[in-house]
Amino acid sequence: MAKKLCLKTHSPCRRWGDTELPSTLISLSLEFVTFRELASSQSVCHGWQLPTVLRNSLWKLQYKRDWCKKTKTNKKTDDNWAERYRVRWQRMQLSFVIGCALDCILQDTNRELPDEEVSLFHSESLPDLTAGEYFSRLLHQLPNVSGSAAIGAVALVRRIAADEGAGVPLDQMTAHRLLLAAVATASKAWDVDSKASDEEWSDIGGVSLEEFQSLEAQFVGLLQHRLLVPLDDYLRTYAELCGASAHPCRRKCELAEHCSLADVPMPKYPFGVA
């Protein structure tokens, strides 16, 4: 039985001596490491690597530990859990970067209801979560929202806020509901794997189902059903978010300690380049 658990190596590596290290011992050791340590341990020394099946099972365990206990099996991607973890990690880093940037942008905006007529997007009182924390929570609990949809959602919000005729400013009283409607709209329109129901969106967003559907309908109406984000607008939004997340106010942002631009490549533009 012991021979079946041993890993054979034909390389000149003698790091472990003449006795092969049992794979069970490796798996038990690596079950308690961080994802960065797991990534660096894939190649222990020159000419020696963890078996593919063992490496994949360890990444699956790490994914379920860090992201969700109940992970649905996808036959197309279940054979590469390391890649699934990398994509999920980069998307979460992006959510922190965008969240931190939003908090920096909104820090000096209105914190109270206006005297004039308020819109459907105005909160009745200042929310407990900042807009950045709220945005990050949406992406954390809805893993099928792509990075490109997240960038596009911010671009759509900026378009509405820049339209004086819309009557919906972007401030600390409107940002949360605008972001909820924007992320839901962008994900439904652009993400092939978007499977969240309206009930899930409303539950995670903290509003009733009727409120969510009204927010979404009004948001699309203010955009006049034009959900395409031009490439230059997409690139400009990403650049502005990266710039804002690097602003000195970032040090006051609760999300700053979690985000690193070095780990966040720009999400691919979803519409192709004409």
What does this structure look like?
The chain has 274 residues and is mainly α. The protein has a domain at 81-263: Cyclin-like (Cyclin A, domain 1, Orthogonal Bundle). It is built from 11 helices and 2 strands, in the order H-H-H-E-E-H-H-H-H-H-H-H-H. The chain has helices spanning 2-5, 23-30, 35-40, 52-66, 81-106, 131-141, 147-162, 175-190, 198-205, 209-222, 231-245; strands at 43-45, 48-49. The protein has a two-stranded antiparallel ribbon. Helix 7 (147-162) crosses helix 8. The longest helix has 26 residues, at 81-106. It is elongated and about 70 Å long. The termini are far apart. The relative contact order is 0.12. Mean pLDDT is 77; it is low at 1-19 and 70-77.
Question: What structural keywords apply?
Answer:
274 residues; mainly alpha; Cyclin A, domain 1; two-stranded antiparallel ribbon; 11 helices; 2 strands; disordered N terminus
Quick one: how many beta strands?
Answer: 2
Helix proportion of residues, in percent? 40-55%
Tell me the structural class.
Answer: mainly alpha
Oligomer: single chain
Read across the widest sheet, the strand sequence of neighbours is: 1-2
Order of helices and strands: HHHEEHHHHHHHH
**Rg over alpha carbons:** 23 Å
N→C terminal distance: 60 Å
- Tell me what portion of residues adopts beta-strand conformation: under 5%
Please name the CATH topology of the domain at 81-263: Cyclin A, domain 1
Looking at the overall shape, the CATH architecture of the domain at 81-263 is Orthogonal Bundle
Largest beta-sheet details: 2 strands, antiparallel
Give the CA-based shape. elongated
On the 0 to 100 scale, the average pLDDT is 77
Low-confidence parts: 1-19, 70-77
